[in-house]
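Changelog-linked ticket: cobalt (II) ion example.
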Amino acid sequence: MESLKHLLEKNRQWAAERTAQQSDFFQRLANIQKPQYLWIGCADSRVPANEIVALDPGELFVHRNVANVVVHTDLNCLSVIQFAVDVLKVEHIMVVGHYGCGGVRSALLNSRHGLIDNWLRHIQDVNQKYRSIVQAAGNVEQQVDRLCELNVIEQALNVCETTIVQDAWARKQPLQVHGWVYGLKDGIIQDLKITMDSPEDMRGIYERAVQHLTIPKNPNG
Ligand code: CO
């Protein structure tokens, strides 16, 4: 059995480099965790949260699962959101999908992989809800990408509908929920224009974000 010695060696190197750059780096981090952001993203190995937005350890609270799904009864995800909002008092939650997501593709194509098919059933619900918008996107890859966008929008709304976010807004705690999608091919994040910060207009913003997807994109920008 491989001992993963190479990874432990890389860890020692990394820690030494960090300390060389800033001698109190780890002492400072160990004493305080005060991130301003909660990232809810896909578990895909090509989407490393901190790296993409160039944030240091301590600056981003992270929850990842297959295809960045926020399920109303998922105690794991809800606990992360609750701790981030109530204790850490993050001011931003971003749901971050990515184009070409394998989980979204499996949901769209109805592929069978085992237990995970039940998890991906939530994305099939999104597909059924917006079937005409997905089908109008073009070929299969374009349909996958459109469903990746719609999935982010849907999950961002799910975040807003949690009692945690609703209660935070009711007590006027500043908190914005965002929907982003990351491009594996160019490393660029697109903002899906679904930033919600109050219960009053969240439905309208959600509906406009879905509508926005149906507007043909200008190829020049
Ligand atoms: Co993915």
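Closing comment: Example verified and attached. The CA atoms of residues 60 and 125 lie 30 Å apart. The chain has a mean pLDDT of 95.
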